[in-house]
Amino acid sequence: RNQAGVMPRQGAEQLMTPNRQDEVVLQINKLQQQRERRRELYNRERLLREQQMNEDPGNPNWEIARMIRLHRQEMSNAQKKTKTAAKEPPKEHQIIVCVRKRPLNQKELADKKELDVVSIHSRDHLVVHEPRKHVNLVKFLENHSFRFDYAFNENCSNAFVYEFTARPLIRHIFDGGMATCFAYGQTGSGKTHTMGGKFTGRNQQNSLDGIYAMATRDVFSLVESPAYVSLNLRVFCSFFEIYGSRVYDLLVTGKPQLKVLEDGHQQVQVVGLTENAVKNVEDVLNLLDLGNSVRTSGQTSANSKSSRSHAVFQIVLRKSSSITERPHGKFSLIDLAGNERGADNNSVDRLTRLEGSDINKSLLVLKECIRALGRQSAHLPFRGSKLTQVLRDSFIGGKKVKTCMIAMISPGLHSVEHTLNTLRYADRVKELTVDSLIPR
Ligand code: ADP
Ligand code: MG
């Protein structure tokens, strides 16, 4: 024994014969194996118990729910084996297309027939589980896989979404470019939540938490930054609504209708559109409040009419306050009309049907314009709709133009058809771009 009274290690080993040593190692290995087996069994049993517990016999969708659960389990096991990539900086492409899934809401969670059918597996990959039936009536899942620049899951905040979508475009307008950011998707999927901020009441939102305000906040900080302060830029904001082929100013109480004119040089002008000078975020919040109240005034429900119009919020950078001069840069942020009406041809109301086909057309033309931009094609079909006509200067100019589309989706089983339509549309927007031809 040494001074501390501890048997020296070497001494202990000497007490054991080589045979005894092997036996101890064997025993330890055996114990470890047993422990691992027990753990695996326990995990399996727990999973089974969980599945059985959730398999509510009264729920007509329990089989589907179970198939989705197994799919997720498998994917998460597979992912654990592959290393997760390090955090990348935001992408800097000319066209960014991403998807955002909102969480199931209280009503959906309480509905036994509702089910989350969207799995986001990684930062750019998602799967939509569509329940189908074989001819022999056996249920199965058709899993539709999609890849976008980013896929934001239900836990992502507005600030996080902003970071990877609109924020990378702010510098671009300071460098003399034009930028657009579109929120696309069915009514109720989260377009207004994302652009305007979290809802705190029926028509009330926390604007600070929306992309409109976050973008202007960053614009103000860049105006003062050493890189751009010498440009002496002033910031202006407009907010208007496009309803069918009519344009309404949202910054004037009473929502006056505005004329859209195209001059001989193919410059499009929204005549009389209010452009308010803003000095700080507070000014912008006041404008947003005014615009939102003008937009929804007289409506019985938050979604009744606003879901049938496109809302356009613009941040304009100018070197002087003359609004006839071409701006230094412009950022248009658009809360698009709900895309669900394209399929809705059996509405009894003729006006609703006409509105539906009008919205449908404007969204199709928008898609073609972005695709043309991606192909760097000289022909832009912007005259096909009021929306693209008004945004014309944000589509021409080659590399001076950048755009971002956020496709919003509802996670529920009841929305699966609309969700697939939304994702297919977004897929088409991206598919022909120069970016997408570069192998990942
Ligand atoms: P849209 O403008 O596409 O019709 P909304 O933005 O009005 O949809 O959202 C519909 C409802 O869902 C609102 O009550 C909103 O608060 C809620 N919602 C949308 N997106 C989210 C989200 N990411 N997190 C929490 N709630 C959301
Ligand atoms: Mg909305």
Automatic annotation (TrEMBL):
Domain Kinesin motor: 94-432
Transmembrane region(s): none
Any one GO MF annotation of this record: ATP binding
Subcellular location: Cytoplasm, Cytoskeleton, Spindle pole
This protein's UniProt keywords: ATP-binding, Cell cycle, Cell division, Chromosome partition, Coiled coil, Cytoplasm, Cytoskeleton, Microtubule, Mitosis, Motor protein, Nucleotide-binding
GO terms (BP aspect): cell division; chromosome segregation; microtubule depolymerization; microtubule-based movement
Domain of life per record: Eukaryota
A GO cellular-component term linked to this record: kinetochore microtubule
Binding site for ATP: 185-192
Similarity section: Belongs to the TRAFAC class myosin-kinesin ATPase superfamily. Kinesin family. KIN-13 subfamily.
Protein name, UniProt field: Kinesin-like protein
Originating species: Drosophila kikkawai (Fruit fly)
Gene from which this protein is expressed: Klp59C
